[in-house]
Write a structure and sequence with these properties.
- The complex is a heterodimer.
- Chain A is built from no helices and eleven strands.
- Chain A is mainly β.
- In chain A, the strands form two sheets. In chain A, strands 2, 4, 5, 9, 10 and 11 form a six-stranded mixed beta sheet that branches.
- The relative contact order of chain A is 0.35.
- By secondary structure, chain B is mostly beta strands.
- Chain B contains no helices and eleven strands.
- In chain B, strands 2, 4, 5, 6, 9, 10 and 11 form a seven-stranded mixed beta sheet that branches. In chain B, strands 1-3-8-7 form a four-stranded antiparallel beta sheet, with no helix packed on it.
- The chains are: A mainly beta, B mainly beta.
- Chains A and B meet through strand 4, strand 5 and strand 10 of A and strand 5, strand 9 and strand 10 of B.
Chain lengths: 111, 116
């Protein structure tokens, strides 16, 4: 499968702590994106990092990309209860035309 | 306006019914997508339209029939569905340049479909 794999599958932390989620993939990519999905709702785009970028920030989000290891991480700093959601990485392969989602990480932030 | 709207929010249909899901966006995006998502699983791509033409069909059964009447609207016509087709159906749109999928996608809230 060319789908990304994410770990952990589930993560439970306290408010104020940092949350780190990892994503691995198998083939060369054009870009990697992270999305958030609140329970039963649509996905919200968080951040896109291109294959020639190594790190990107957006507010409390920090994404890294290591193309040599075919992996990415999403760090959410100073987490809030409202960050509780499923987080998916999604990749566009170099010669592909579709977005392929990883299995997702379910993040629970306890007040 | 960065919103993608989908109607209806919920749909219950029998296996002999014909129904349609609707999706609309006014962001000027020329790529639109249908995804199917089962509980606790990632979205699975079904169809991609680029400039109102079907560009990708992920071997979806013919009981699902997509339609793109214009650049703002995307429909998914449903006929003779099976109970295993029950899922959340998500519509998304994006800029179509650079292959569409290379751009961020904006998702609608989805239609929760139950086939009885």
């Amino acid at each position: 499968s060319q789908q990304g794999e994410e770990d952990p599958q589930a993560l439970s932390i306290q408010e104020g702590e940092n949350a780190t989620m990892n994503c691995s993939y198998k083939t060369s990519i054009n870009n990697l994106q992270w999305y958030r999905q609140n329970s039963g709702r649509g996905l919200v785009h968080l951040i896109l990092i291109r294959s020639n970028e190594r790190e990107k920030h957006s507010g409390r989000l920090r994404v890294t990309l290591d193309t040599s290891k075919k992996s990415s991480s999403l760090l959410i700093t100073a987490s809030r209860a409202a960050d509780t959601a499923s987080y998916f990485c999604a990749t566009t392969f170099t010669f592909g035309s579709r977005l392929t989602f990883g299995e997702g990480t379910q993040l629970t932030v306890n007040p | 306006d960065t919103e993608v709207t989908q109607t209806p929010k919920h749909l219950v249909m029998g296996m002999t019914n014909k129904k349609s899901l609707k999706c609309e966006q006014h962001m000027g995006h020329r790529a639109m997508y249908w995804y199917k998502q089962k509980a606790k699983k990632p979205p699975e791509l079904m169809f991609v339209y680029s400039y109102e033409k079907l560009s990708i069909n992920e071997s979806v059964p013919s009981r699902f029939s997509p339609e793109c009447p214009n650049s703002s609207l995307l429909n998914l016509h449903l006929h003779a569905l099976q109970p295993e087709d029950s899922a959340l159906y998500l519509c998304a749109s994006s800029q179509a340049n650079m292959g569409g999928a290379r751009n961020e996608q904006y998702f609608g809230p989805g239609t929760r479909l139950t086939v009885t």
